[in-house]
Amino acid sequence: MSTQSPQRAEPDLLYSEDEEALRAAVRDLLADHCDAAGVIARAESDAPHDRELWKLLADGMGLAGLLVPEELGGQGATHREVAVVLEELGRAVAPVPYLTSAVVATEALLAADAGDLLGELASGRRIGALAVALNIPAGSAYQVVRFEDGALHGELTGIADAAVADVLLVPADDGGLYAVDASAATVTPQVSLDLTRPLAKVTLDGAPGRLLGDAEPAVRRALRAGAGLLASEQLGLAEWTLTETVRYLKERKQFNRPVGGFQALKHRLAQLWLEVVNLRATARNAADQLATGGDDADLAVAVAQAFAAPVAVHAAEEALQLHGGIGMTWEHPVHLYLKRAKADSIAYGTAGAHRAALAELVDLRAP
Amino acid sequence: MTDAADLRRRTAELLAAYPPSRLPPPPSTEDPAGPPPSSATTDRLDFLRARFDAGLAWVHYPEGLGGLGAPRSLQAVVDADLEAEGAPDNDPRRIGIGLGMAAPTILAYGTEEQKRRYLRPLWTGEEVWCQLFSEPGAGSDLAALGTRAVRQGDGDWVVNGQKVWTSSAHIARWAILIARTDPDVPKHRGITYFICDMTDPGVEVRPLRQVTGEAEFNEVFITDVRIPDSRRLGEIGDGWKVAQTTLNNERVAIGGMRLPREGGMIGPVARTWRERPELRTHDLHQRLLKLWVEAEAARLTAERLRQQLVAGQPGPEGAGMKLAFARLNQEISGLEVELRGEEGLLYDDWTMRRPELVDFVGRDAGYRYLRSKGNSIEGGTTEVLLNIVAERVLGLPGEPRTDKDVAWKDLAR
């Protein structure tokens, strides 16, 4: 037994009873209101977002305000609870702007101390979107618009869920972050790889904006939380693809036996299970570190994203392959998961970008 | 029920009766000669024996057998208080097989007499144990073993056979042994579990030199070794079931350990990277970062598993931890040899040594690379463990079996 100085307490990597109860409630709601066939049908329509489901989550359950303090109209919960909600939304590839509005936009507003808007977002009455392209990691350069004569001018692309946003949080070239009413902007949907989290182009042509505060710290905080909690969505997604593939391979027979009995496939699924188990620990760690504001939060987020993205993509790709021809069809939902997983692997920074951040954080520098 | 406060009180009483400041440090695990033969040894053992008798050795064991029937998770309370006072430990690495495998099996299947005879010197480290399971023809297919135990008229058993990959056999006083007692029934049903005396003249231990040059393992030849029936564990023919207890405990012991960040194989290579900028290349940088992330993920998973155990909710993750660490150790140590360039072409020492301990990281990069090759074989091969995960955790169909209803003597060998 070592006699080293005692280590700092490890993060709590388990789920509390309350968190499990929250999970059960969200899962029940999604089972009733977010089936795969519905998501596919919606994805092909002009209105890919599920506003009814959003209303149930935000209004009915108050989940949009988990990160917002109670005195501002929120639930005063933490990133740990948000992570549990995102796990379930990931399992269902639910087409709701939860990550973008209730996490990323909310974190930006928390940084800017924008009380009234926080209350509106928390209640779900309005949906917010940070007008930074989805692929940008915290700490990287992002596009800004021009602030001139008291109005905003410019074009921003790759803005996730902007199509349903009521308020856009726009960084400008004067270093400020502005709240812009969506009705004052032109939002043009882009054809997106991920049908369930569509991107849009935002054009501002002399739009009025209300200055919220400095953009840089708000954007940094928002993107860090987005990246860290995205790992929980990726966990839910990977879990669904694994569970569903295992279920299918127990039923599907070829050569007069269940396909899941062939060792070559058993080993692939066991490997995948192990990856998902590891993903759960990294995602839980990131959520806990964000919740407690620990010194290791940057590190935990970088580890979680560097690990989660490849695992979620691998899980979805394996699910497609192991479903055989059925996996290649539009009617089977596995494609929704593959598209979400691949888009998620770029969202808030690629695994490579997070590894580069890590190299600095843990002093493993490039040559 | 014994609670944490009660355990802390008992620990304080033990410390008061045996103040650890008077005790010498435990024998160095690096020093193969062990501690000097002075009265110091007696002091250390006195403390350990007193700790055992106070029920603070393994608190979840029964009273009188080193425990108090307390929840397993409360051991951490006792250990923390003892460590803070500098109390000697029982050198758990050196006696890992006894602690992790023999003890839980004896507790589950031993007679009262057996428990009282074996558990105390096992825990204090006075008697080292080894495990005589694997054979040249029975590794992953352990139940195919051929070592025979034949019952004599007086009730004793005479054992003949050969075992292999036996760590610690050269320092062990006792061994857990499985042998075939009925060749006429299918292989899993004709096995019986014994305790073997390693000092018996019929037991011959030969070092087995490995790819590292070391002889950490042994071959054990068993010739007409007489084992009294009083050293049988469990019923005749029930040995496979008893062995499952041993093997399940082995896997629990492998998972659930607490590691600091960079506490595993990634530590030495990360230090080399930091201290030797001249060795860095872009290709190695990418691979190192990827492995660093995977090592941290595995560490967090082990920590999560530990927290589950403490909370009394053991998860199936333990089944996978050995798989993860085996792969990581191999990839990371392989990377380190490359990182060292010209130095990677050298090796510290090929002299055959017989270490008392399994040493995964203590030598140079080349040694780590070679030793880690065993990680995916020892304690269950990666291929077998993947099957176990697939079948027991994911519920996928089992492998087709052609040996289930065939008498052992009729199996192809």
From TrEMBL, chain A:
UniProt xrefs under Pfam families: Acyl-CoA_dh_1, Acyl-CoA_dh_N
Superkingdom, natural source: Bacteria
Organism: Streptomyces akebiae
Keyword Oxidoreductase set for record: yes
Protein name as annotated: Acyl-CoA/acyl-ACP dehydrogenase
The family this protein is said to belong to: Belongs to the acyl-CoA dehydrogenase family.
Keyword Lipid biosynthesis: no
Residue span, Acyl-CoA dehydrogenase/oxidase N-terminal domain: 16-102
From TrEMBL, chain B:
Annotated ranges, domain Acyl-CoA dehydrogenase/oxidase C-terminal: 237-394
Positions of the UniProt region annotated as Disordered: 1-42
Domain Acyl-CoA dehydrogenase/oxidase N-terminal: 47-126
Pro residues composition-biased segments: 21-38
Stored InterPro entries: Acyl-CoA_Oxase/DH_mid-dom, Acyl-CoA_Oxase/DH_mid-dom_sf, AcylCo_DH-like_C, AcylCo_DH/oxidase_C, AcylCoA_DH/ox_N, AcylCoA_DH/ox_N_sf, AcylCoA_DH/oxidase_NM_dom_sf, Mycobact_Acyl-CoA_DH
Comp. bias regions, Basic and acidic residues: 1-12
Every Acyl-CoA oxidase/dehydrogenase middle domain range: 130-224
UniProt KW keywords: FAD, Flavoprotein, Oxidoreductase
Co-factor requirement: FAD
Pfam families attached to this UniProt entry: Acyl-CoA_dh_1, Acyl-CoA_dh_M, Acyl-CoA_dh_N
Homology family: Belongs to the acyl-CoA dehydrogenase family.
Protein name: Acyl-CoA dehydrogenase family protein
Species for this entry: Streptomyces akebiae
